[in-house]
Amino acid sequence: MTGARTIRIGDLEVHRLGFGAMRVCGPQIWGPPKDRDGAIRVLKRAYRLGFNFFDTADSYGPHVCEELIAQALRPYPNDLVIATKGGLLRPSAPRWVPCGRPEHLKSALEGSLKRLKLECIDLYQLHAPDPEVPFAESVGALAELQKAGMIRHLGVSNVSVRELELARRIAPIVSVQNEYNLEDRASEDVLKACERHGIAFLPWYPLGAGSVLKSSRVKQVAARRNATPAQVAIAWLLAHSRVMLPIPGTASLAHLMENAAAAKLRLSPDDLAMLD
Question: Does 60 participate in catalysis according to the annotation?
Fold first, then answer.
């Protein structure tokens, strides 16, 4: 990923294109991958290609993704930043249930530390607000765990501007992870708030679960730039905001190589006008 620009997450600096590790789990992000050795190869290759920010969560698998990262990448390189999340339960494959109770978040963090074989998480994110628990209570619990030395930096995910501002009143917030891509910009107001405050914005589903790749304008730009639609979609995110840190994920070595090359693609003003 030579030439990729960088971004700061608190006092950490990483390449602006990260690796979302969710897809290395089994189907529906449930259970182990069908090809465990293949998943390990993807994780190792991602780092060698220059991805030094890996995003995961205890709910991916559940637990499987964190275990695979530890198996593939330990001893961790000095420049590798691992971000994980807590606050969603997986009672079955199709279900994602918010759980922001302080006692659960503490247990989730302890589990992540054990699986990742770390004493402190670089970036720990509240995976989603829990409608049954006051948001300030969940964030406050993580702030206490940060003070205890178990978390280096705090982030939030799936939040509104109001929730982000509330979280910032409780503790320093260095990242936000919301759904965002060229076709779905519902979190534009949250992105703008991140720009104002210098907070990294991690767009999940940066390719819209594949929907962005079907866009005629994306295909047109890709054709004239001799790139793939995925590369154009990622390059657009990088150009759209200075705080953007896309985290495309894959279990395929071919797609991994394709995504990595997007860091070098610079869209012209005409390209951006067509896509905007």
Answer: yes
